[in-house]
Design goal:
By secondary structure, this protein is of the alpha+beta class. Helices cover 36% and strands 19% of the residues. It is built from 17 helices and 18 strands. β5 (106-110) and β6 form a beta hairpin. The longest helix has 18 residues, at 399-416. The chain is globular.
């Protein structure tokens, strides 16, 4: 029975024959050493080796591969740069992995309509670089923006440091051309900000690949702000930094970003990219304003008063692009930088109400102490999206299991405080078992029905998001 669930042996042989017939040549990988490269994404605790990897050059090759998989009942998963932190692009043994990095063309930029049409393998930051000549940018900016791709951003509805004001990927996708799990190619949405009918693009964004693969994505562009003001505030405790966030939000001021880093995250960033953060800080709060010059100037004065009244030990402000870039370099490098502190780490991205940030951080500290592990905190404070980095040494017996148990406790804490198990990293395989803890049986049943309406054979990214067993795989 298990063989049938991942594709019967004859089906695997037939799909390989069909893929060879596509004339992919060296772009069809089947050797063990070649497949090993794709056996994991950024969540390296999970590893599985696929049957084959297709390095697609064109949308037509993606469609042909999906059709071959559907024809022979073989599951498939799409992969961009493999930056998923929830195992979202983990392959399935006996399945086909479709790599989309070669589909990396920006097909069109329309500066008057303020949109761009891109292939799924386009790197996030490249969209803004291409649009800059028109005074435009693509707003969603995940920390991995220099390597992550638009297709993956769509699959997981990625956000980023500036999502507080700009919103998530779903707020910036106007339309898509996608191949459904049965190989049918359909157009969702269009180029209008006010589409007619059901919001199919909104449904597809964040579906983690369960509804198929995006072949082209039409994204909304926004003007590059006339002025940007960045403030870096130092606090003696995480609680004080969290209280400052509540004070800023309660004032009615709407920054484009509100980010917090704790002492461990600061230490890691300084060891790695050396952003020059003030020494000895227990917590840093990064606040950014953008807009017209007069508006930003007025908001900056209000912000200065709020930070002063919040008890900040030191405040540094800048409007210089180079200084601003260095501040953000430290923040965006925080995940990889913790490698300077420990050989391994797990990261969560649970969400709690802003009003309960302090409570959540205190409880995470208590849980970490009980588990005998260190946790570095760096997070989107403006929307309560926590990113606790659980540090451990996988060479120590039982260390990974303790880290995973702590990660689960943190997710349950987020649910208990009225939040969510994920803000932008997705459920993938990592949080799959926690989804029923957040949603009731009726909600879970509806998710399954919706998935089966699109993919009754459950071939697209099988084993992700929805729990395995009882007909869910």
């Amino acid at each position: 029975m298990e063989e049938e669930r991942v594709g019967a042996p004859e089906g695997r042989d037939r799909v390989l024959a069909d893929l060879r017939a596509l004339g992919l040549g060296e772009r069809l990988l089947t050797a063990p050493a070649e497949l090993a490269v794709f056996s994991s994404d950024a969540l390296t605790a999970f590893r599985q080796r696929p049957l084959a990897v297709v390095l697609a050059d064109t949308a037509e090759e993606v469609v042909a591969t999906v059709r071959a998989c559907h024809r022979h009942g073989v599951p498939f998963v799409a992969r961009g740069s493999g930056t998923s932190l929830s195992g979202g692009s983990l392959p399935l043994e006996g399945g086909v992995l479709i790599a989309l990095n070669r589909l990396n063309r920006i097909l069109r930029i329309d500066p008057r309509a303020r949109l761009a049409v891109v292939q799924p393998g386009v790197v996030n930051l490249e969209v803004s670089r291409a649009a800059a000549r028109y005074g435009l940018q693509y707003a969603p900016d995940p920390s991995s923006e220099s390597v992550c791709t638009i297709g993956g951003n769509v699959a997981f509805n990625s956000g980023g440091a500036h999502c507080l004001r700009h919103g998530m990927t779903a707020n910036h996708v106007l339309g898509m051309r996608v191949v459904l799990p049965d190989g049918e190619v359909v157009d969702l949405g269009g180029e209008s900000l006010e589409p007619v009918g059901p919001d199919w693009t909104g449904l597809f964004c964040g579906s983690e690949g369960l509804f198929g693969i995006a072949l082209e994505v039409t994204v909304r562009l926004v003007p590059v702000p006339e002025a940007v003001h960045t403030a870096l505030a130092v606090y003696d405790s995480l609680e004080a930094a969290g209280d400052a966030v509540s004070r800023i939000v309660a004032s009615g001021l709407l920054p484009v970003a509100l980010e917090i880093m704790d002492a461990l995250a600061i230490e890691a960033a300084e060891a790695s990219v050396k952003p020059g953060y003030p020494p000895g800080a227990a917590a840093l709060l990064i606040v950014e304003l953008e807009g017209g010059r007069e508006t930003v100037a007025a908001d900056a004065a209000r912000l200065a008063a709020l930070l002063r009244d919040s008890g900040a030990a030191h405040v540094r402000t800048t409007e210089d692009p180079g200084e601003r870039a260095l501040i953000w370099k430290g923040r965006k490098a925080a995940f990889s930088a913790v490698g300077w502190l420990a050989p391994d780490y797990l990261v969560q991205d649970g969400v709690v109400p802003r009003t309960r940030l302090g409570e959540a951080l205190a409880e995470i500290e208590r849980l970490a102490g009980a588990a005998g592990l260190r946790v570095a905190n760096v997070f989107h404070a403006g929307d309560g999206n926590l990113h606790p980095l659980i540090l451990f040494d996988g060479r120590e017996p039982g260390a990974l299991e303790r880290a995973e148990a702590l990660a689960g406790d943190i997710l349950r804490l987020c649910i208990r405080l009225g939040g969510s198990i994920t803000g932008e990293h997705g459920v993938g395989v990592e949080k799959r078992a926690h989804l029923p803890e957040m949603f009731g049986p009726d909600d879970m049943e509806l998710m399954g029905r919706l998935r089966d309406a699109v993919d009754p054979a459950r071939l697209a990214n099988r084993g992700k998001m929805l729990p395995v067993g009882d007909g869910w795989s």
